[in-house]
Design goal:
The chain starts with a strand and ends with a strand. The strands form three sheets. It has a seven-stranded antiparallel beta sheet with strand order 1-2-11-8-13-6-3, with helices on one face. The protein has a four-stranded antiparallel beta sheet with strand order 7-12-9-10, with no helix packed on it. The protein has a two-stranded antiparallel sheet with strand order 4-5. With 201 residues, the chain is α+β, with helices and mostly antiparallel strands. It has one domain: Sandwich (Jelly Rolls), CATH 2.60.120. The chain has two helices and 13 strands; from the N terminus they run ββαβββαββββββββ. The longest helix has 17 residues. The chain is globular, with a radius of gyration of 15 Å. Bound molecules: 2-oxoglutaric acid and fe (ii) ion.
Length: 201
């Protein structure tokens, strides 16, 4: 029996993936990163994000001075690589009723990277969940409310944990306050990789 935590409606399964499963996922993601190298998107305000990103799937998440959006091509001009099968299996296991994911956003947190509180709202169909897979160093994940401000709750996400941001929690504010350097040996060069699978259209 798996345990599930409920964090303001965000469902978290600690230890969802075994170490061999994490290794398989990581191998697929490292080949995506070779074909579509991570880059630091720039926000509307002209500031580069501390998290490096790339994507797999039909769409990739992108930001520059024009704002946040999904793009069909990596900045190199090439289409994004396909989402690895092992990653799709996780989506099917935790979101069996959902449509097929169209984007796997790959967030690479090297030392000092963080992600401020935000909502995932660049997708057209908000009835579809966002599935998040954590690999590598532990990260302090903060979840707030649907509205801005108010109280928040945090949990450490560890390598192999899976979270689903869906249903009534689909638009909750969330972010990564900090990552514990050296807490995992999974990622070559250290750090954390988070995958978020999304239906975009
Ligand atoms: O890194 C994480 O665990 C969260 C990532 C996230 O919220 C996002 O990519 O929108
Ligand atoms: Fe998010």
């Amino acid at each position: 029996m798996r345990t599930m935590l409920d964090l303001r409606g965000v469902r978290v399964w600690p230890g969802f993936l075994s170490r061999p499963e994490q290794d398989t996922l990581l191998a697929g993601i490292l080949s995506v990163m070779e074909a579509a190298p991570p880059f630091h998107p720039v926000t509307r305000w002209g500031k580069a994000m501390s998290v490096a990103m790339t994507s797999a799937g039909r769409f990739g998440w992108f930001s520059d001075r024009r704002g946040y959006r999904y793009e069909e091509r990596h900045p190199s001009g090439q289409s994004w690589p396909p989402i690895p099968d092992a990653v799709l299996r996780v989506w099917e296991a935790v979101a069996p009723d959902a449509r097929a994911p169209e984007c796997c956003l790959i967030n690479l947190y090297r030392s000092g990277a963080r992600m401020g509180l935000h909502q995932d709202r660049d997708e057209a169909d908000l009835s579809q969940p966002v599935v998040s897979i954590s690999l590598g160093d532990e990260a302090l994940f903060r979840v707030g409310a649907l509205e801005r401000g108010g109280s928040t709750e945090s949990v450490w996400l560890r390598s192999g944990d899976v979270a689903v941001i869906g249903g009534s929690a689909r638009l909750v504010h969330h972010g990564i306050d900090r990552v514990r350097d050296g807490s995992s040996d999974l990622i070559p060069g250290g750090g954390r990789i988070n995958l978020t699978l999304r239906v975009v259209t």
